[in-house]
Amino acid sequence: MELELKGITKQFAGVLANDDVDLRVAEGEIVALLGENGAGKTTLMNILYGLYTPTSGQVLIDGEPLELLSPADAIAAGIGMVHQHFMLVPVFSVAENVVLGEEPTKKLGWLDKSRARRVVREISSRHGLDVDPDAIIEDLPVGVQQRVEIIKVLEREARFVVFDEPTSVLTPTEVESFFEVVRSLKAAGKGIIFISHKLGEALDIADRIVVMRRGKTVAEVVPAETDEERLAELMVGRPVDLTVHKAEARPADVVLSVEHLVVLDDRNRRAVDDLSFEVRAGEILGIAGVQGNGQTELVQAITGLRSALRGVVQLRGVDVTIESPRDLHKRDVAHVPEDRQRSGLILQFTVTENVILDSYYEEPISNGIQMDWDAAREQALRLVDEYDVRTPSVDTLVSKLSGGNQQKVIVAREFDRDVSLVIASQPTRGIDVGSIEYIHARIVRKRDEGAAVLIVSSELDEVMAISDRIIVLFGGRIAGEFDGSATATEIGLAMLGSQGESEAS
Amino acid sequence: MTDGGPPPANRPSDPSAGEREARITGVGTSLGKAVVIPALAVLTALLIGGLIIAVTDLDTLSVWGDDPLEALRLTLSGVGDAYKALLIGSVGSPRALTETLYAATPLILAGLAVAVGFQAGLFNIGVNGQMHMGGMAALWVGFSVALPGILHIPLAIVAAIIGGAIWAGIAGLLKARTGAHEVITTIMLNFIALYLVDFLLTTSAFQAPGRNDPLSKPINPSAQFPTLGDYRLNIGFLIALAAVGFVWWLLYRSTIGFQFRAVGFNPDGGRYAGMNVAWIYVGVMAISGALAGVAGTTQVLGLEPYRGISGFAGTIGFDAIALALLGRSHPVGVLFAGLLFGALRAGGREMQGAAGIPIDLVLVLQALVIVFIAAPELVRAIYRIKTPKDETGVTISTGWGG
Amino acid sequence: MTSPDVTSGKRIDRRATSEERRATVIGVVLVILAAFVFWVFGLGVESGVTSMFNLSLPGERLQDLAWEVNSKWLAFLVAAILAFLGGFVLRKSHLTRTNLALAIGLGLLALAFLTWAAAGNSFSLVGMLRSTVVLSVAVTLGALCGLMCERVAVINIAIEGQLLTAAFVGTIMGSAWGIWAGLIGAMLTGAILGAVLAVLAIKFRVDQIIAGVVINIFALGLTSFLARRVLSEAQDLNSPGSFPSLKIPILGDIPVLGAMLFDHSMFVYATFILAIVLHFGLFYTRWGLRSRSVGEHPRAADTVGINVYRTRYRNVILGGLIAGFGGAFLTLSQVSRFEENLTAGIGFIGLAAMIFGRWMPLGALGAGLVFGFARALQQKLGILGTPIPSEFLSMTPYIVTIIVVAGVVGRSRPPAADGQPYIKE
């Protein structure tokens, strides 16, 4: 049996998300679909799962075209999907989630809960997916929730299973056991499509790798005949050069010091666990690690957005552990937040309003009570010019700008003063190469002006290119500390908790 | 099944916050767009209102079977008479015009109260309760203090501002401290205020001597709003105009308003930029409640018999929601929407008197106007107008209880 | 939307001990109540005075059933128990029993209050319990309507308007064609308004609060308009008659309980049955599981082939039928005549009952009974001439709701997607 997507084109308002894409997967085969964020992978899979209707093109099983108008059609055709954001009802039990949509019932639609439990137990023992059918989803760790998703797919007797970025939320140990499950599914004759932007994983598990770029399939390769560099080139479209030109760092006094910091996440787990480190003026400390190892909570704790359970954060020797974001702003801390659209900008505001977002209460923008919009516009004009923000005018809504220019608006706002500490989370995520280079150069310039810089990024390439010193976070603790000369392999191993077996990408 | 688990209020940020881009409050819409849909909404509402008048005309209904043409003529003239009375009663004479402005006064003030909330992402559905509490404060100052009018009226208004601000501030504080949704708390506070007014009006502090029903002592003439000649139009209208100016300045020229709007669009973004979101919610509610309190004064200091009565705020607090929507939450928009609704009310009285059409029709018209404003697709479908590209669904308040 | 961590650095500590803090608050409240009962209801009554509770209604088979109690000593006993409960809660050894202790305490408080109010007097306890049940019907039905909608994530604050319009149509159709026609007309009216809410909320994605406000204004305006324009001219359209009382054989003759529960019109029985059926339906059937999944995580429901929109339409319209039934009760059983703004906030008390009942049908029933009790008490107090202003009892449902949403006595959690329109990609 073979599943085939043929000539799929999907046009959204103004955007060609998929452009004549072809993809095949046979039973017992693992195909990796590789591409950058925004390459059109998820759109393609949503078409396969009946969530989108393609503008043109067909989905076929053994040459027979399918009509996929809803997920129900896809399920009926034997296609299952494990979504990146799990499709589980948090307050339901495992068994309820598994049977939802195909509930075993007695008379009058009365749920047969014992049969639902039995179904879960059977599947979980058959595929080594250990879960308690009566556990409530929101109490389970992410790795177990993923198992529930897989059980859901298997319960619907899917012959083809799509995994959308399955490892992005998993810890390295969970990734390993996840890979085992995938291999066992393959052995059971399922056809698998594995969507990822991580090269190493694709090389590790796939029988075939299909690379997408800007909505098109650009290559199809076999792992044995390629390597990471060639794949990266295919994904990005030109040889990647992330070298940042910078002089030798000259670290001076300690600016930021974090001692025995413990921070809880939203579910009361220790996301940051007894962490201590220092950043000096004139150096860039990079924090590497797989996403979800406490980076977000660490930055929130330092910037006053989340309270610490224990430990001390000091700025130039002053305890700032319980200070608010405003207090820290006044202490000359610049913060480029992780999610620019959600927390860095007010998308419905203009460029002018956004560049004064954290200084509106100060001279010259206001006298504390009344805004001086002329001064604000003047400042905006100056910053747009100085930071190369490409915008029709400073009165344009910032939502109309490209991701790179939005990020430059934030950088302009945060960097336009003498700062002693720069904290930048994922400063270049999802933006164009030109903007990446520009923002990196700006960060280096701040360092050279004597600021201490803390960069948090899950892109190892970025951390390695820009940092003078690197620490690796794993499970909220430091799993390794490196100077600028460390190799990717060394750091990659640390990212897997020092004992990782698979290669890091 | 529904209890237990972590209190939702403690989620670091509302999951829907990032999705709340398009908003009905219409902040930032262009002038052309801001006028076409409201105008068509009002027109359509009037047409449907005419239909309602026609089908409820019992005398004419029986004629249809005998003489359809005559029935049609009767129907049309009946509707025509009603709307003619509406027009005459609202703009047909100097007296009618002053009545329109007079009726618009509390509506504008209350509409501003709702609009300020909308601009900061809060839905203050409790304007009625805040009007009651503000009005009671003004009432007490009005009859218990002896001062010259030049001081007495401002003092009464200050009392109303404090009363309204505190009452709304309760909802703001509950939201900031516990995450309790303002829609629920303000609805509940409306009813509590209603009963509190009833109770207070029967206490010796308020009740007119010798009365058993909830009726207050009369307000001293020095605290009564001076009227324009023998018209009912009074100084309250000037206060409303001043409030429009103040709200405009507050929202678009002050640092407080900048924070209100930032938090209204994206609370997370405001928080990252160092704004104290919790206290902004309290501040927004307090200012909104203060405006509502001023609206409340018009119902005691500016209305015969210059006494407090049970439920004196009427339905103004709910009309205010319609007003804020119609005026796209812009103070100037609210002013014009208030004038329009004031005209409907003033004209509605004439319509009731002259054409025998119950004034409650005005409520129906208002409801229809909001539907068409809130669901512009309906209007566009009726008039075959193209949908602008950047318009999406409208959501102000998503979820509650946490 | 807000996060308390904005204001303070103590968020985590607060969360870790929230149960204990709650126990402290409730324990202290119970102790204060004990002192209050002791001083006011105990010492405030002269010795030897008794309170007489009549336990039968005039005309019942067992006449003159009554319970006489020494007013002072009962207050002392209640105060002692309240103090004990307070101490129990403050010990914090059984944190899960905090709410139970609070419920018992409040029940006893009501008893002590009644005893005090009836001191030196006699009081028809059965009569009050009976009207508690009657007064709870519309509130419970309103709450069940709201719950049907919110369980599929459609906020319904238009319950008031649905009740009012249904009561109006029920009156007209009942007067013209008989009470059963009135009932059907009322239910269909509720369903139609439910459909309007559903279309506005689901298809046009109008803010659901605004949609609800619109329907309420529209309902009030239209029914008042028609009442003045039509009913005032055609008086015969405003006398629909009412559904008879159906005394259940055997059960209806049980002392106290019979008059309280088993001698009512079919509306009362139907409400109890409906609450039970909906409760089991929601938590034990396929329909319930699917409905709840749509309210909690619509996209997940969609991906397993559940039609989110259809589920929402269906439940909101079913909810409308229930509200319509409640509207019919108002004019075809409780009173048999329509008046302007007849509902006067019952729909909002229903909303409050839904929240107080934690979005569960049996919870709604219980909350409806509690609020019905408050209203019944308010009516009886006027007769007894106690110095408690009736307005404060009228406020009870609203104050209770604020306390509940503020999380003071345990937080109730609404469906996760409540109020959010679902946008299919």
Identify low-pLDDT runs of chain A.
Answer: 499-505
- Largest interface between protein chains, with number of residues from each side: B-C, 85 and 73 residues
Strand content of chain B: under 5%
Structural class category of chain A: alpha/beta
- The number of helical elements of chain A comes to 17
Q: What is the CA-based Rg of chain A, rounded?
A: 25 Å
Shape of chain A: globular
Distance between the termini of chain B: 16 Å
Structural class of chain B: mainly alpha
Largest sheet of chain B: none
User: Main β-sheet of chain A, in a few words?
Assistant: 6 strands, mixed
Shape of chain B: globular
Please tell me about this protein's structure.
The complex is a heterotrimer of chains A (505), B (402) and C (425). With 505 residues, chain A is an alpha/beta fold. Chain A has 17 helices and 20 strands. Chain A is globular. The two termini of chain A are 32 Å apart. By secondary structure, chain B is mostly helical. In chain C, the strands form 2 sheets. A 3-stranded mixed sheet of chain C has the order 2-1-3. In chain C, strands 4-5 form a two-stranded antiparallel sheet. Chain C has 425 residues and is mostly helical. Mean pLDDT of chain C is 86; it is low at 1-16. The radius of gyration of chain C is 23 Å and the shape is globular. The chains are: A alpha/beta (505), B mainly alpha (402), C mainly alpha (425). Chains A and B meet through helix 10 and helix 11 of A and helix 10 and helix 11 of B.
